[in-house]
Design a protein that fits this description.
The protein is an alpha/beta fold. It has ten helices and twelve strands. Helix 1 packs across helix 6.
């Protein structure tokens, strides 16, 4: 198995560390240094030779308004001509569903994105689905895990506990993303879409309350969504309200969550922090 990642970021690096099956090659691009530079504005140098023997291709580069999907913009022909390619994984986001008034959505639900992030994600998905290769799209909830979580902002007093009635978010621990990707890579199907989220859509304020309890901090005072302290970017995440189902990934991939809710995930992170 020879894996190449366009965008060797948080999830891709975790996947590299989590791989346990026989592996002969794992590499990926970055935006600032090294031989494998790809910033979305210019092509990856020597892409044809780099990709020639790759069997599994992971895409975690975000879309942009200029090129929609920059990987396809620069390297569609290279990818379509990869002779050994068995699997493409595209990391998308549940923002493609838009707002469903707090109702449940699955992979068959309408995609009605309400913000630019979701619109670009959906357009990028559509581009990848036209590729004549086995494309697997993974719609991820809010990603958290070691080094990417709310613990430090709570400790530093910088967390904003926003109160928006009946608002929930679906999230996913990075280790659970990696386990689903591993299963899919080992048994490639054709043109599949999976939601990767945990079992417990929850208000962001509830997560902060849980962390304050475990850290023995006072509960953070709540503020409304229209409070001046809430930035426009942060406020935009509250446009969508939905509960995302993960049944398809569980049933088709036999995927089992190590962290079925934020509680198990954060308890694991906190325990490891105590050990270090």
């Amino acid at each position: 198995m020879k894996i190449f990642c366009f965008g060797l970021g948080y999830t891709a690096k975790c996947l590299r560390n989590e791989l346990s099956f026989p592996l002969s090659h794992f590499s990926g691009t970055n935006t600032s240094k090294g031989d494998l530079l790809f910033n979305g504005k210019t092509p990856l140098k020597n892409a044809t030779s780099i990709l020639r023997n790759i069997t599994h291709l992971l895409i975690s580069v975000p879309p942009n308004s200029e090129h929609i999907d920059p990987v396809l913009y620069h390297h569609k022909a290279d990818i379509e001509n990869m002779p050994n390619l068995k699997w493409i994984g595209y990391l998308s986001a549940t923002s493609v569903y838009g707002d469903h008034g707090g109702g449940w959505v699955d992979e068959t639900s309408k995609t009605i994105p309400t913000n630019k992030r979701g619109i670009l994600r959906l357009r990028a998905e559509e581009q990848w689905r036209l590729i004549n290769k086995p494309v697997h799209i993974f719609r991820l909830g809010g990603i958290y895990g070691p080094l990417r979580n709310q613990i430090e902002v709570v400790k530093n007093g910088l967390a904003k506990r926003i109160i928006e009635k009946n608002q929930v978010f679906s999230r996913i621990h990075v280790i659970d993303i990696c386990s689903a990707l591993k299963i899919s890579m080992e048994n490639p199907l054709s043109h599949k879409i999976y939601n990767l989220v945990d079992d417990n859509p929850t208000a962001a304020a509830d997560v902060l309350d849980f962390l304050c309890e475990k850290l023995a901090f006072r509960t953070i005072k709540g503020i409304g969504i229209d409070d001046p302290a809430v930035t426009p970017t942060l406020r935009s995440f509250y446009q969508d309200n939905k509960r995302v189902k993960n049944n398809l990934a569980k049933n088709e991939l036999n995927w089992r969550l190590k962290f079925p809710s934020y509680k198990e995930g954060y308890l694991d992170i906190l325990a490891k922090l105590d050990e270090s």
